[in-house]
Design a protein that fits this description.
Helices cover 44% and strands 20% of the residues. It is built from 13 helices and 10 strands.
Length: 310
């Protein structure tokens, strides 16, 4: 199975387009912090300076894509050091109602910066070693795109659809952006040392196989010994290698993933608590409720509407 697809589906990856820009100088905007979202900015025309709070200053040119996985506040501007009002103020001053293009500035065609700006969000309480290992920012330059033709094609399509009118245009951009996020992780474009190590675990012949087994059947009565046996490793060597690559012990991963699957079943499919307990490997609803409450701070019944509880 495709483990990354399973992870992103279970954690409910969703793209959102919050504006398309037509900026001409002087202009600047402070994008607020959003810890539960990974921001992105894709420059279609012109350029922009980006200053990430607590991070670097970057200059983006046409064709560059910047992702800020931890949703830190940052400034976008036509030049360094410009005073940047909050995004809410810029939107209000422009009379922007969430539709069409956000136009700011004097409208000088020679100084236009056009961007697609949005974010990726996950369900509340989503956790996984991949998310924890994401770097503070990911920059995909136009030159890097040339080395990955499929990514170049995707971003070109986003650029064409972003400013298109008609039914479904914004929805197309959202879905395409989700594919870009997944593929940037999958191909290692986002990888620093931490994420690179986790991704190595996913492609490791034995640890990757163990992860496939866990994701294919999380309810199975797994143990360190049974997983090690399945991938033809000794128990101790398997446990040490799993932790060194994935970042957590094998049974911690199993437990955490079962609870993430349980959260998805409760929220998305409205399954009864007793059924979710059985589907995620718990022998009783009481044991499941204890583990769920310890992990998320609320009982599983609190995730369901009263009429759905069992």
């Amino acid at each position: 199975m495709d483990i990354l697809d399973d992870i992103l589906d279970t954690l409910n990856l969703e793209g959102a387009l919050y504006f398309r820009t037509d900026f001409s100088g002087p202009w600047a905007v402070t994008v607020p912090q959003h810890l539960n979202a990974a921001r992105f900015h894709f420059v279609l025309q012109g350029s922009t300076w980006v200053e990430i709070e607590g991070g670097p200053r970057l200059r983006l040119s046409a064709g560059d894509l910047l992702m800020i996985p931890r949703g830190r506040s940052h400034v976008l501007a036509d030049r360094e050091g410009r005073q940047a009002p909050p995004l809410e103020t810029v939107l209000a001053d422009a009379g922007y109602d969430g539709r069409g293009v956000l136009a700011v500035g004097a409208g000088d065609p020679g100084a236009e910066t056009q961007m697609v700006c949005g974010h990726f969000s996950f369900r509340s309480r989503a956790e996984h070693p991949i998310l924890k290992a994401l770097p503070d920012h990911v920059l995909i330059t136009a030159a890097m795109r040339l080395q990955t033709p499929w990514l170049d094609d995707l971003l070109r399509l986003i650029g064409r659809r972003a400013f298109a009118e008609g039914l479904g245009a914004q929805g197309s951009v959202r879905r395409l952006s989700e594919i870009v996020f997944a593929e940037v992780i999958r191909t290692g474009h986002a990888a620093d040392d931490r994420l690179g190590t986790v991704l190595k675990g996913f492609t490791d012949p034995q640890i990757g196989r163990a992860l496939e087994l866990i994701h294919a059947d999380p309810a199975r009565d797994w143990s360190v010994g049974s997983l090690a046996s399945e991938v033809a490793m000794s128990r101790s060597v398997f446990a040490e290698r799993f932790r060194s690559l994935v970042g957590v012990a094998p049974m911690s991963y199993v437990t955490d993933w079962r609870l993430q699957k349980a959260l998805a079943l409760l929220e998305d499919e409205r399954r009864p608590v007793q059924q979710v307990a059985a589907m995620t490997g718990y022998r009783s609803s009481a044991a499941f409720s204890r583990a769920f409450t310890q992990k998320f701070g609320v009982p599983p019944s609190a995730v369901l509407r009263p009429a759905d509880q069992a």
